[in-house]
Batch of 2 targets.
Target 1
Amino acid sequence: MKFRPAGPAALLVEVDSLAMVRALYARIERERAHGWAAGLVDVIPAARTVLLDGVADQAALAAEIRSWSIVPSPPAAGQVVEIECRYDGSDLGEVGRQWGIRPEQVAAIHSALSHEVAFCGFVPGFPYVAGLGGGREVTRRDRPRAAVPAGSVALGDEYTGIYPRASPGGWQIIGHTDAVMWDPGRDPAALLQPGDRVRFVDVTP
Amino acid sequence: MSGGSKRAIRVVRAGALTTVQDCGRPGYAHLGVPRSGALDAPAHHQANRLAGNPPGAAVLETTLTGVAVSAGSEVTVAVTGTEAAVRIDGQPSPLRKATLLRPGQVLEVRQASTGVRSYLAFSGGLDVPRVLGSASADLLSGLGPARLADGDVLQLGSPGSPECREGCALGELAAPALPGLVVHPGPRLDWLASPGLAALEDGQWTVSPQSNRVALRLQGQPVHRRRGELASEGLVSGAIQALPDGHLVLFLADHPTTGGYPVIAVVDPACLPACAQARPGSKISFRVASSRD
């Protein structure tokens, strides 16, 4: 575990796997629920880091976290969210090429993998759904698209992303969903939260 | 509310970019929701204090060309932030002073003469629908109210018991000014190739016209950066990213919550108001924080 100050009031904790991010984030949230580090404003899990923003004493907080015994934790047996996906994206050919299979085989492989929301970012409700490890990582497009439609299901590196709203994007689009990823009138507004497991259901007509 | 008259203002001239801002949306970054909120927080608080509002009440934030609004009812107003001429029905009115606006009177904030952003507080605060607890317009993610357009009508809340009354005036805020921004090295200083930190301390940058509420884009001698890919990680306001081509991006309130370019240093929070008021073309240099900062 490595501690890197991010300015005078934030601490970036670096670990070596998503399983460690998961364990550390879960522990932090558990401690916060009991009033720990009350000044913390935001805690942001990511691929290999957890950022704590609103830290009064970086050294003291680092020492305390270092004293925790954190072991890599498997995906929680928590919420499973099903995302219905039409595998009709315009980059199926490119993903098939990268995976060494035919484009029409992408759906079966992608929907059979086990996926988990590693973190959210980019825009509200955009989940980085991890699940493409073990040689299924996908290289992004050389040049991003100026506009990726809302509901696009796209692959980048070890992640599947789902675009909550039309935005520019460089990921490889494999399909589309009608799931509403972000609804400010809903609580929680984001359909997917860090730690959720995701099952992509193939509903291609 | 007495008298039954609607407490509201009408936008006569929206200006280049005028938005509603308050303290933003802390606590939702793990869902990808930017912090947002007034870029020049001390000026935001000062305007509210003068108008008799709680410091975090919703105000207008202008960009370079000011704004003009007319009062639908009697309202105490205060203008803070950048130096700019203020007129009420064409007559000069002071900055940083609580002033009564009568129904039909037009308050105009003209072109910013030094910085970028003015803050206009109205007694009772702007009463617009809140998203995740905030009235702030977040230009990155589209949360919150749309930017102002000519003819818009904005409702005002009920005035509380003011700390300041009409005629109350406050001085200029004593805040660090450009060009020298205090920075804290890291978290990814190790991505900066030789000469490392010295490249930041010795260099000078110019604020690009492509700057906005998301970030200041800085033009200058590119820094030498290690090659490679960094996994996306959380960002704080004031984070300075080194792009693959060596250019620097300095993040402001509407920044994305995560990013994949290395953050080589973070601007001290006390210097963020100066960043908020940095005009395109302004010079910026960096000074590494000492134990005194």
Note: The longest strand of chain B covers residues 75-81.
Target 2
Amino acid sequence: MEGFLHQVLAGLATGGIYASLALALVMIYQATHLVNFAQGEMAMFCTYIAWSLTNAGVPYWIAFLLTVVFAFILGVVIERVIIRPVENAPVLSVVVVFIGLLVILNSVAGWIYTYTIKTFPSPFPEQPILGIRYVSPHEFGAIGVTLVVLALLYAFFRFTPLGLAMRAAAQNPDSSRLVGIRVGWMLALGWGLAAAVGSVAGMMVAPIVFLDPNMMSGILLYAFAAALVGGVDNPAGAVFGGFLVGVLENVVGAYVVGPDLKLSVALVLIIAVLVIKPTGFFGRVHVTRV
Amino acid sequence: MALLEVSGLHASYGLTRVLHGIDFSLDQGAITTLLGANGAGKTTTLRALCAMVKTEGRITFDGARIDGRATEDIVRLGIGHVPDGRGTFVHLTTEENLRLGAYVRKDKSAVEADLERMYGYFPRLKERRGQQAGTLSGGEQQMLAVSRALMLRPRLLLLDEPSFGLAPLIVRELFGILRTVNEREKVSMLVVEQNASMALDLADHAYLIETGRVVLSGTSQKIKSDDAVRRSYLGY
């Protein structure tokens, strides 16, 4: 029983990380109807920036904040410089651009930092938090950080005029322009926010999986699964999906398929959702008049 | 002085040209209507004013050229648009839709007052303030579109078929409200309507458009008494 509880709690911790990355995917999907395959590599690259900062002696939380700001700027710049020119291009062209971005970020990180695996510091103490022993302090802290990020995002989109404008721009660009919203910039802001959320996921997962240029490839798969399970156009669904996938991965990995086949849980989930219920648990069914 | 002056306005969708050099002007504080059959280019004219289609020609608003500027910049000059199809943000609430209308305004307390004013004009919207706008009836969405545009506190309001899908009684009410807004706040209006007789009752001036050209213009009184207009558009 204790073992099971540990698996569930650890699953919630990694699930929170999947949830963050899935949320980043959904934010961009809602605005552009495209899945950003480079989301994971953007997060990985930002995590390296955090690593450089902490190695240079910057205190962890300051490095954390600087990295989030860097990620935001990186996201905005990528949208303005790379994505905007292909805005009206066919879907496949944009997908190729995303994959190109993925390969470029991966190679640049490998070139600068080498492919040697590095340890990444955790900001949380070594001793169990609140005396809970089923879950490591870092996992516990990661759940907390994830929840704070999700709450902040929710408040931003729900209660600020800018958040409202971003939601409006994502769902009805024409009407948004007619009330004076600069739709192009809202997209760039969305990319910035998504990158920032992704960078938090990167920094939270790095102490668990260790830092190397390929660390996010598996995580991104789980995030895809999470986004699909929740419904790829529903942010709350993506968060739910993230936690669900995290727990499923751990429990199924521990008791059914064994740790070596964990990643295939994500793949099976992706296929199952697409075959059985393509809109996920909370996705909208799209109806088109023909 | 004219608030809006349009000369030689051409517009096209892809290779298909829809407007072939339209000229008209709107007086400050007046209500002007564009009449014409389906496909004459009325909606396209309104879209052209807001840079929502590719245009050529000269558009001057309050003495400054606005052709070639981006839609959002034109809106920020004070041109509100009730678009064809209502343009509802269907997944947002009624109140969020209204607040978006005031997105570019900085005077927060006046925005709150205007919100209440809109609810005063259309009590139905107040009942539905927290409801997803996509679940409103067609008529309610039309009221929402008009209120959203008014939330901008526009100097010029462009209205595309405001009577579309509304019951006759509600049309009368809506046109009454437009008249009030025009008189009290000196909002100039350009109304595109299929219901020619209602539009002529509301408007001070009218232009008749046929296949992308202005063929007749004058005061509403004069247009109303024109024999050809009476036969083709008023039907008696």
Note: Chain A has eleven helices and no strands.
